Amino acid sequence: MSEGQLLSEDVARNEGDARPDQAGTAELVDTSFGHVAPLDGLRGLAVAAVVVFHGAQVNGLAGLARWTQGGFLGVSTFFTLSGFLITTLLLQEHVRTGGLSLIGFWSRRARRLLPASLLTLLAVVLLTPVLGSPEQFRSLPGEVWSALGYVTNWKFILADSDYADLFSGAPSPIKHFWSLAIEEQWYLLMPLLAALLLRRFRRGPRALTAVMAALALVSTAVMVIQGNGEYSNAVYLGTHTRLAELAVGAAGAGLIQRNRILRSEPRQRHLQWLGALMLLALVWTWSLTPIDAAWLYRGGFLAHSVGVMVVIWAACQPRGPLTATLGSGPLVNLGKISYGLYLFHWPMMWWMSPERLHLTPGWALLVQCGAAVGLATLSRFALEEPIRTRRWITSWRQVIAPVGAITVVALAAFVVPEPKATQVSALGSVRTVVFPTSVPQAPSPSEAIPTTQHTPANPAPSVAPPVVDATAALRPIPPASESGPLRVIVSGDSFAMSLVPGLQRYGERTGTMAVMTNAFVGCGVGRGGKNRGIGLERPWPKDCQGRDADLLRNIASFRPDVALIAGGMWDVTDRKIPSLGKWRTIGDPDYDQYLRDEILHLVDLFEANGVQVVWTTAPHWEPQYTRRIYMGPPPYAEAKPERTDALNALFRATLVDRPNAALLPLAEQLQAAPGGEFNPDLRNDGVHLTEAGTDQVAQWLAPSILTLAGRS
Fold first, then answer.
1. Is the model's pTM score more than 0.70?
2. CA–CA distance, 106 with 651 (Å, rounded to integer)
3. Neighbouring-strand partners of residue 531
């Protein structure tokens, strides 16, 4: 996110006449460019797109969301605008002084960026434990520290916190700091590169423009190659893949400063009309482009930034239709508070939910936006401007004040209370793979849950079912891991994923098990088609489409001994399979046959690669509706217990023909647990295990897997 109008104001303040003794620059650089109000208007339009995009999704306004799904491109617009303005600032300083003051540049950026940023972070640290969810404040300290270091984008990449799932679960209240991190990394490196090129080359501005154009092409190529032309979290959030948008702005600044484009009034008029048409095209793109649109990751972000650059050039002209539109008062004023508005709106939208406000979602969005605009305006005039213009902090305090403020925020994050293990979903602590480092310890026999190939239909025991002999249920372990911990790969949906942290911690603690996850949110056993689950109709997710390929890659690299398959909620929803035509559900003979084939496909995939299969029965589902999780209102067909009971009966009937595939009665164990399978300490959302629940289940599940594998 750009720091708003400051750069334009800096340009206006620093403008001056070129000195003739600066070889090669006076003829190339036009320093008449000053503060341009229409650029504030463009910034206001872009921040409005981002805010409405977020607000429609957060508040569950499906109709508005369909027409604002490309609002995330407002951030791309800020990248290009920031690249343009920052390079203009540097080029004009070089013309005026013959060099660049890096300390002065970074000092101005700090005075502008830190006040509102630190205010946001401090508010998040203080209010999230009160207004946020336990999942949000569990990970808050690390996220705040990464925001203070402007490496948030890499933090979320390494944590595999997918930006495309921004509105699922309980996203971080500072998730939007990822774009600030990219810009700050740019502000750190760009002046160094500019200083080097302007010093070493006689025609430094030309060299800088050429290097920026080349950087844009290289960054785009990296995006295409790394992501295979498709969306991925690392590609979307990566500094190396998003530099193209900033570099296009920098190259555009070099071109306009050399005055090679705008030499005559007719050209200026033509550019105005071209810019107006381009702005219409951009707004249309912001309206209808989903974040995973393949064209964006095949050069689309580059093309979008070039379009933005055309609008910027046109906006810099003295008169015309585009200048009049973007120079209108409301857009200009919105642009002037865009930095604060971007910072404040995201956490405020999650805290000021329709439920808390006792308003409908539409009215709640209006209140949220009004509050964010008001706070951003107050912050600009009462905090940001006094600090930027040094009215508040002078002399040695300019160093002490920011260091002290950063320290206060960092320490405040450190003392954020840890939520109870019964309050948070285990999904937040899933690691891709964990190998134990301790010496293997034999589990206590009393810990193992009973294992069985077949159990009576629809059991609901009040105590644990009787133990049956299943020690020889699986074939011998592959020799590659006989002397090490048992290697277990977990496959299934998000419920299966919630089993993983407990198994990983059990394996670490006992030294008996290495656990890798290959589970995906929303991925049932069955492939393809559409689901009607959690009140939404959706196609089979893209992550799920690559499930088998991911499994084969992980089998080759991890060499698992056992595959644990769990879940099933998405298989008991209403489903439309192309080969079956109409919507079906479990109990329909054709759909049941489809599921049998899918179950056997997954078993065969593992067994063909020497991996033994352990399946678990599926618990009943009772999704708890909340607008904060992207879902429709109840009732939910998948919550009907008879559907899950029918699925478990199908598991038993299908796996009877696979003597090397075991079925563990996990559902029955959850039912027999104190408080039952929907005990909120065990499954507080009616679907996934809590942190306490995953550890409790691991005490049953891990020893049983070890027993089946002959490791007990």
1. yes
2. 63
3. 538, 575
